[in-house]
Every structure is written in structure tokens, then in C-alpha cells.
Amino acid sequence: MLVEEHLVTVTTDGAGAGQGYTPVVRGRILGIQYVPNGLTPYAATADVTVTLESSTRAVLTLTNLAAAGMFYPKAAVVSLVNGAITGNEEPVPVANERVSIAIAQGGATTTGVFRVLVG
Hints:
Blueprint: E1 4-11, E2 18-21, E3 25-36, E4 47-52, E5 58-62, E6 69-71, E7 74-75, E8 90-97, E9 99-104, E10 111-118
């Protein structure tokens, strides 16, 4: 399986909010890594919301992100009659849209990088 890595740098404004996007991708989101900037990292109160731009489907939500980390978002799997199949999650599928990364409460003029792995 071919895996693509997309680096998204998100810098916050004076109010601590920021937004960034991957290019248009297709496949499954295999992982998202947060790498704080060594000089101006996000405040420990930063909230991160990752969604798909066009469909607005939720991918990952992180609250009070205080340190670097690797995250593996999963989509719930349901049966033919819409019953949840627990313990059987799959990577989030994406078809021809951008991954949106929004920061709130990140502190004024701070920066972080997100590595989005799609395969």
C-alpha cells in the first residue's frame, strides 16, 4: 500500500485560532502526528478539530493538546441494520477532499505542524 504524508503547518492568530488544509486526498487517514514548534508551541489549552472539508465528517478531536503525539483516528463500523459493531473500527475513508485542521485556544501567534498519513 502506498502511503502519502502531507505536512500542514497551522499558525494561530492573536485570538489563538488557526486553520490549515492538506491538498485534496483519497484513501484512508491512517494517522495524524502533532509536532509542536520548538520556539512557539501551542498553549496547553489548545483544542484541535480535524474534519473533512467538503463532507464535514469528523476525523479527530483533541482537547488541551499539551505535547507532541501520534493519533490513529478510526471510523465506527455498523451492521446492515445500523447496529454498532464494537471493537471493529476502520481508518477514516476520504474521497477527493481536503483534510481540515482547526485550532482553538492555541495561544496568540503559535505554530504547530501536523503530519497527515493517507494510504
